[in-house]
Amino acid sequence: MQLSEFENIYNNVISSELFGCDCSIANIFLYQERYKISSFVKNDTLFRFYETTPNHTGWAFPIPLKPKDSNIDRSDYLKSAIKEIINSGKLRFCYCSENQKNIIDKCISENFPEYKVEWNTFRGDSDYLYLQKNLAELPGRDFQKKRNHISRFYRLHENQWSFKSFPEENIKDDILSVEEKWFSENEGQSNPDLISEYKIIKNAVDNAETLHISGAVLYINNEPSAMCLAAPVSNQTLDVLFEKAVQSAAEDGAYAVINQLFSKSCSSYTYLNREEDLGIEGLRKAKLSWKPEIILDKYYGNLIRI
Description:
It is a single chain. By secondary structure, the chain is of the alpha+beta class. 39% of the residues lie in helices and 25% in strands. It has twelve helices and 14 strands. It has a seven-stranded mixed sheet with strand order 8-9-10-11-12-7-13, sandwiched between helices. Strands 1, 2, 3 and 4 form a four-stranded antiparallel sheet that branches. The chain has a three-stranded antiparallel sheet with strand order 5-14-6. Helix 7 (172-185) packs antiparallel against helix 8 (192-206). The relative contact order is 0.18.
C-alpha cells in the first residue's frame, strides 16, 4: 500500500464490525514491510496477505469497501473474495477473529462444500479491548490499585508534570525524544525488531495527518518522559499502537498516568484496543490488571479440500 492510496482506502472501508488491531488501516500501512503484508483492492474488497512466520502466514479477513455504485448489494462479497483466495493457491487464513472465522466457515459451507478450514489459535496473539470509559475514570474497587499508583505519581511530581495531545499540539519531536531515550535504555541498536519499530514510529509521526494518528506526551520537569500513539480501527475502536516511557518515569508510574490521561482524550471511542501480550507472562498479567472488556482471540486456518 502506497501512502497515496491510503486515504481512499481509509475513507471507504466498511469498518463497523471491525475490532482487531490488524484491521486498522494505519497499522496495515505502517507494518507492511515488517510483516511482509501484500495488500490490494479488487471488486471493492481489501485483500491482505501476510507472509511472516509459518504460523502467521495467510490471508487476513477480506475487508469490504463501499461499492462505487451505491445500488449494489454487497451482502455476498465474501463469496467472491474466497473464490479469489482459492484461485490464488495460497490456502491459509490468519489473524481472523472468532466472528470472522465463523463467517468464513458459513460462506465456505454454503458455497464451496468441497472445502473446509482447519483452525487453530494462539493465546499470545489475542487483542485486549478496554472500555474507554473504564480506562479514563478507573471506577470502583477493581481499579483501586491503579488509582493508588497514579496518585503516587502525582505526589512525587506535584506541579512538575504536564500533558500534551498530538497532533493538536506540535510535539512530534518530543514523541521521538521519548522513543530515542527508550531505544537507548533498551539497547535497541543491537535488536533488529526495535530498530524496525523505531522506523515505524518515525514514519507514523512524519505522516500523522494522512494516517489519522493521534497521541500524547507526558512531561516531567518539562522533559518528555512518556508517549503514546494510536490510530482508528473503526468509529468505535481506537488501536493504541505504541506506549513508551523512559525508565525513571516508568518507575514512578508514568505508564499508568499516560494510559489514563490519553484515554480521557478519546471519549469519541467506545473501545481502546491495546493489542496483544505476545505470550509474555508479565505483559499478560499487566494487561489483565486493567480489566479488559473483550479478549479478542485470533485464529489461523488451513483451507483444505475434503
